[in-house]
Structure formats: structure tokens, C-alpha cells
Design brief:
The structure holds two protein chains of two kinds. Chain A has 14 helices and twelve strands. By secondary structure, chain A is an alpha/beta fold. In chain A, the strands form two sheets. Chain A has an eight-stranded mixed sheet with strand order 6-7-8-3-9-10-12-11, sandwiched between helices. In chain A, strands 2-1-4-5 form a four-stranded antiparallel sheet, with helices on one face. By secondary structure, chain B is an alpha/beta fold. Chain B has a domain of about 80 residues. Chain B contains 13 helices and twelve strands. In chain B, helix 4 crosses helix 5, helix 5 crosses helix 6 and helix 6 packs parallel to helix 7. The termini of chain B are close together. Classes of the chains: A alpha/beta, B alpha/beta.
Chain lengths: ~375, ~350
């Protein structure tokens, strides 16, 4: 597999230098030490839009291990969904440039041909989209759609694929799976449709599941059921889950590690406890402060982050968060901070000295 | 002590046994009724001046239908809506026009509820024109003042909604609702479509406006964490009925209906350690089809406590504390609850 990938890699690197040089003989890049299942490095995605070039994803790097949930947190427009779609190789058509590397099983996904990518997408890496009602084709029964996904990757007969689809629907807890398989998407409730979509994503026994806000369209009691199901599947199937969300509560509930995105960059990444109890970036801190909690005192003061996220067309110079940051210093206006290790397994991109950042965790 | 001030002032809004049904029809030439949806079912509640009353529930529970009935956008099937001591259920013409000035609405979708072809100034000015308030220059002054109040500036006057961010659009919606000095503002999920950081700003603004102008809000939301921070009293709805009613404090510290309990337990906390220790009540299934409601207590098919009697009759309201009631056979009545918790009379 790796051999077919290697020669084309350079094409997509643009001006990247020799650090990641890949030769025919070298199966893996020299920098790979981790045995991560997915290794995204310095991913950059830009779009051509009417108002100008939009850098939706900028220098994003993260790894995902087997049996782990990585939550990608961010507000709308922070680039979290574009990151996910790029990993899936399903970028929108107006993508101008996608640079960087996405390593999966010794292959750089960005350099794969569309045909090679088609063998991975939906097979090894599957996705659960946000809105189940939009994701399904309204004119086919769900069983047929799931069977189609199976037959796209495995040589099974229609009958075998259908049986497998029913078994999957049963596995995700859809009552009366055999009868439900013949139902059309509109006959299912939101929660059931989301279960069916999860069944479809699991159709080929993927290694990685990308869940793009899978519970945002659902009611809280149903959200609790779906999160429980995802956790159960992760445990039993050893899935690696990239969970995209804007909800700090959901991330706290299911994530092992969390990456916070702002204006196309990861600004902080850490294990879940460290991120929630010892945030090292003012944006993470602000998000935690402005998140409303049901267990707060009802008169607790809400501390909002001032201002609004920057325009993706004309992001502010320096650190993109500086116009909203209460601790902004002159240097924040001039240079974008690099991600630095602030504690073991904890990186943050902020100019503030360590001493001042410590104070964030104390609030 | 808040209770006493409320008890002495007459209610601003009172619903008496309000029911709203929608009928399902089939056939084109011979239309016949094939079913009915009980969207709101015997809802009675009172909202006092200066308070912030929350209506909580999941999608399909009838909270938005109830808001439409209150705003006289939909006629109720039965029951009465009293506003400021006047029965507005059948108000018409000039009388209804006068009531509408006192009742304004903030929408969930600030994008869809602002005319994209109008400028912000004109949007905010429209209700002033509609109610013939002031001459053009006075109106212009009022619009600038309103922009200031909601945290925008006179610079926004000539902008179009498309030029604004989500938070700014919601501020325009709030300014428009405030323009005619209403007594009651119905907020239908005003922050649900906003990002976390913006959501906190809008909630702070709504609270500030209430303090400044003595507004009364009827706040509709599916998000209990939002409601907790802004409402004084709450009604929890499930399938068209109010299942629990009480002060925010009472409902959050001592939920007395199993549905309220499950709802509270389903909300994730932004606290990983607390999440790991939490015992979650997972409700099985989803709310049933409102066109075919289960007999007895509507919640019984999903309820952990359900007994045979729950299938037979709808439980009457049980007062579990002063101003706190729940529709459940297993809610501990007032004296018992008081003795159990050793509560002193409030």
C-alpha cells in the first residue's frame, strides 16, 4: 500500500521542505515515532470564495490512536468540519489548496488518487454527519442504503448485504431491525435516523469514525442515548473516534483528549482533564467561563467572551484571538504564536508567559 | 419574599385551561378528518409582572404552539388567554392591535426573521410606524437609542442583515421587540442558534434589559442550562401538558417529575470528573407520536416508576412545596415533602 502512495506525495507538498521527504524505499516518514492510527500534520486547506481566499484550516496537526476519542471543539467557522472532511477526502469543490499530510496505515491520504481514496472512505474511515434527515437519500429505504454502502467495499450478494444491514441496525439498537430496514428515512424519528446513520458508518467495520456534531440536531434525552451508543461501540469495536462538537459538556463526557480550534488553528490540545481544569489558552478559558452549567448556582455570573469570531477572509494579524483576549499584549498583534508544549501531552499556542497562564486555571 | 410581591400584584398573563388541537385530513375531493394532534393540552399558568417565566421541553412538546396561542397568532381550541386583566382570546380589530403592542416576540432564527432587503434602521423602525409612534425624526432618534441599548452603534443603522454576525442580528431582533415598549416579550429559543461565546453575551443583555426596563419575559427553550440562568419560574412541558411547575430553584434542586429528573440528568456537564461519576437516567425510546398519545400519563412508556395505574388515568397536579407542583402519582405531597426535608415554612 505504502509503495503506491510514496511517489505522488511530493506533488501535494507545495513549498514544504525535505523534512518529510518520502522515498520509494522509505515506507514511513522519518519523523514518525508514534504508532498513531491517524497522524495529521500541518494540514492547510484554503477556499476560493467571492470575497477572497479563505484559509479555513491552518497548520493543524493532531494524532488519533486506536480506542481513543479525540474531541475537536470550536465555534462555527473555526474549521473543525473542514478538517474532518479533508481527512475523509470529501472536500468541497471550491478548495483551492490542501497542503500538509494525513498519514493513515502508512499512506498519505492527501496524495492518494481518487480511486485509492474511494477504497478508504466509508471503508476504513467512516463518517457520521450532523443531520440524519439530510444525510439519507429520501427515496430509498434505509436498509437498501446501508446494503449499498456495504457492497461498495465488499463483494457480497444483495441478500447477504441486506442481512448484514439488518444485523447492523440491530447492533445500534434500532427496535424491530428487520422491519425498520424497509422504512424510508422520513418514517424514522431523529434519534432512530441517527442510529441508522451510525449503522451505515459501521457497515464495513472502519478503523476510524468521524462524528461531525452527531447529536446537535437531537433532543437532550436522545443525545444521551446516542452518546452512550457511540461509547459502547468504541469499547466493543476498538474504534478511534474523531468527535467534532461545539458543546463543552459533550466533550467532557466522551473525550479522552480535546483539541480546541479557533479561526482555523488548533490553539490548545490536551488530555480532557488537563484541558478542563488547567486551560492554558485564554480562548479555552473563555469558552469554559461562558459555558452555562445546569449545576451552577442560578445567580452565577456569566462571563462572556467579548466580541465575535474574526472574519475568515480577513483574519486579524498576529494571534487571531487577540482582539477578544483580555490579556493581549503588543506582541500578540504582531506574531502568531506557535504551539508550544506547556505540560506533558499538553500544547497551547499563546504568547502569555507561563506564570500568567497558570492564573487562567484559577479563574 | 419574591413570592409575596408576586401574590399582591395582579398577573400580567394568565392561561386558563388552554388547549390547541390540529386536525389531520386526507383526501382532495372529499376531505375527511383522519386524526388530530393534541399540541397543547389543558395548560394553565400565570406570569406576574417583572418575572421571567421559562417554558422548557423537547421538540414537539407544544411550547412553540403555546407561544403562538399567547401571541394570538393561533386561536386556541378551548380555554382563555388573559393579558393585563383582559380576556384576549377573542379580541379583534383595534382591541387586538392595542394588545399586540404590549406583546412582542424575539425569534430563534435571527437570520430568517429579519427582512434581508431592509436596512437595520428600517427594521427597527417598522413597529414604531405600525403603531404610529412619533414623527420621522423622533423615530430616527428612538432607533439610534435602541441600537445603543442593545449594544450596537448608530453605524449599524444603514447596514443590511447579511452584513451582520449572528450575535449582531439577534441584537437587532431584540431592539425591534423593544421598540414599542411592550409589557411582555416572548423569547422563542433566542440563543439556540448562537455560538457558545455569543450566547453568553445575549443572555447577559436580556438580563440587563429586564433589570433596566422592568420587562416580563416568557422564555421558551429546550436548554435547561440557559433557562437556569435567566428564569425565575419554570414550567416543564411534555407532549402538550405541563408536567412540573415551580421556581427555578425548586425544579433544579428537587425535581419531582421523573421526566424533569431525566431531562436534568441527560445534560452533559463541562466537567470531566463529574461526568465520570455521574449516574445518568437514560430514558428509553423517544416521545411518542403526538397524533397517537398513550393513555393515562403520557410519560408512562418511558418512565422508570410506571405502575399499572399510570396507564389508566392522567395524574392530577400534586403540590410538592409552596408554588411547586408536579403531575405524577409518585410526587410526594406538600406536608410529606416538608416533613422529610425538614423545611421551614417559606
Amino acid at each position: 500500500m505504502a509503495e503506491t502512495a510514496a511517489p505522488v506525495v511530493r506533488l501535494f507538498f507545495g513549498n514544504d521542505d525535505t523534512e518529510y521527504m518520502v522515498d520509494k524505499d522509505v515506507k514511513k516518514p522519518t519523523t514518525t515515532k508514534s504508532d498513531a492510527l491517524l497522524d495529521v500534520r500541518r494540514l492547510q486547506v484554503s477556499f476560493e470564495t467571492t470575497p477572497g481566499l479563505v484559509r479555513a484550516v491552518n497548520e493543524v496537526s493532531f494524532t488519533l490512536n486506536r480506542g481513543e476519542v479525540l474531541a475537536l471543539i470550536g465555534e462555527s467557522g473555526s474549521g473543525k468540519s473542514v478538517t474532518a472532511l479533508t481527512v475523509m477526502g470529501a472536500m468541497p469543490s471550491n478548495v483551492k489548496q490542501a497542503a500538509g499530510e494525513i498519514w493513515f496505515q502508512g499512506q498519505n491520504l492527501l496524495s492518494l488518487s481518487p480511486t485509492a481514496m474511494r477504497h478508504i472512505r466509508g471503508n476504513r474511515i467512516a463518517m457520521v454527519p450532523q443531520d440524519p434527515m439530510i444525510a439519507f437519500d429520501p427515496v430509498y429505504p434505509i436498509g437498501v442504503q446501508i446494503a449499498e454502502a456495504i457492497r461498495a467495499h465488499q463483494s457480497l450478494s444483495h441478500r447477504e448485504a441486506h442481512e448484514r444491514a439488518v444485523a447492523l441496525l440491530d447492533q445500534v439498537g434500532l427496535p424491530n431491525a428487520a422491519r425498520r430496514a424497509a422504512h424510508f428515512p422520513h418514517q424514522l424519528s431523529g434519534g432512530m435516523a441517527q442510529r441508522a446513520l451510525i449503522a451505515m458508518a459501521l457497515a464495513c467495520g472502519p478503523d476510524i469514525l468521524i462524528a461531525d456534531e452527531p447529536t446537535t440536531a437531537l433532543d437532550v434525552t436522545v443525545q444521551a442515548q446516542i452518546l452512550e451508543l457511540l461509547m459502547h461501540l468504541k469499547e466493543t469495536m476498538g474504534l478511534a473516534v474523531l468527535f467534532i462538537t461545539h458543546d463543552m459538556g459533550v466533550a467532557a463526557q466522551i473525550a479522552d483528549r480535546v483539541a480546541v480550534m479557533y479561526a482555523g488553528r488548533i490553539v490548545e490540545q490536551a488530555e480532557v482533564d488537563a484541558l478542563f481544569y488547567r486551560p492554558q489558552h485564554p480562548y479555552t478559558w473563555g469558552l469554559l467561563q461562558s459555558t452555562l452549567r445546569v449545576d451552577d448556582a442560578s445567580d452565577a455570573e456569566i462571563r462572556a467572551i467579548a466580541g465575535a469570531p474574526p472574519s475568515p477572509v480577513a483574519p486579524p494579524p498576529g494571534c487571531a484571538f487577540h482582539p477578544r483576549c483580555p490579556w493581549a499584549k503588543p506582541i500578540c498583534r504582531e506574531a502568531a504564536p506557535a504551539l508550544a508544549t506547556v505540560a506533558p501531552n499538553h500544547v497551547a499556542g499563546c504568547h502569555l508567559p507561563a506564570r500568567e497562564r497558570q492564573e487562567l486555571s484559577r479563574g | 419574599m419574591m413570592m409575596t410581591t408576586r401574590a399582591t400584584s395582579p398577573p400580567l398573563l394568565e392561561l386558563r385551561d388552554v388547549t390547541k388541537q390540529f386536525y389531520l385530513y386526507q383526501g382532495h375531493i372529499v376531505r375527511r378528518q383522519v386524526g388530530r394532534i393534541q399540541a397543547v393540552n389543558g395548560v394553565s399558568l400565570t406570569v406576574y409582572p417583572g418575572e421571567n417565566f421559562g417554558l422548557v421541553g423537547e421538540s414537539g412538546c407544544g411550547k412553540s404552539t403555546l407561544a403562538r396561542v399567547i401571541l394570538r397568532l393561533l386561536p386556541p381550541t378551548s380555554g382563555q388567554v388573559w393579558f393585563a386583566g383582559q380576556d384576549i382570546t377573542t379580541a379583534q380589530g383595534a382591541e387586538l392591535h392595542a394588545v399586540r403592542r404590549q406583546l412582542q416576540l424575539i425569534f430563534q432564527d435571527a437570520h430568517g426573521s429579519l427582512n434581508p432587503r431592509m436596512r437595520v434602521g428600517a427594521i427597527i423602525e417598522e413597529p414604531l410606524k405600525l403603531f404610529r409612534m412619533g414623527d420621522p425624526s423622533a423615530r430616527r432618534k428612538r432607533v439610534d437609542e435602541l441600537l445603543e441599548i442593545v449594544g450596537l452603534s448608530a453605524l449599524h443603522h444603514r447596514r443590511h442583515p447579511a452584513d451582520l454576525s449572528g450575535g449582531e442580528r439577534q441584537r437587532v431582533g431584540i431592539a425591534r421587540a423593544l421598540a414599542v415598549n411592550p409589557q411582555l416579550i416572548v423569547c422563542d429559543e433566542p440563543v439556540s442558534s448562537l455560538d457558545v461565546s455569543i450566547r453568553a453575551q445575549i443572555i447577559t443583555l436580556l438580563k440587563e434589559l429586564q433589570r433596566q426596563f422592568g420587562l416580563t419575559y416568557l422564555f421558551i427553550s429546550h436548554d435547561l442550562s440557559v433557562v437556569k440562568h435567566i428564569c425565575h419560574r419554570l414550567a416543564v412541558m411534555y407532549l402538550g401538558r405541563i408536567v412540573e411547575l415551580g421556581s427555578t430553584e425548586q425544579i433544579f434542586t428537587a425535581p419531582s417529575h421523573p421526566y424533569t429528573e431525566a431531562l436534568l440528568s441527560a445534560i452533559p456537564l463541562p466537567d470531566p470528573q463529574a461526568e465520570r461519576q455521574r449516574q445518568r437516567i437514560l430514558l428509553p425510546g423517544e416521545p411518542p407520536d403526538p397524533a397517537a398519545l398513550p393513555a393515562g400519563c403520557h410519560f408512562h412508556p418511558r418512565c422508570q416508576l410506571a405502575q399499572p395505574k399510570c396507564r389508566e388515568a392522567y395524574p392530577i397536579s400534586v403540590a410538592v412545596a409552596g408554588g411547586h407542583s408536579a403531575h405524577c402519582f409518585f410526587a410526594a405531597p406538600f406536608p410529606t415533602a416538608k416533613a422529610k426535608d425538614g423545611l421551614v415554612n417559606d
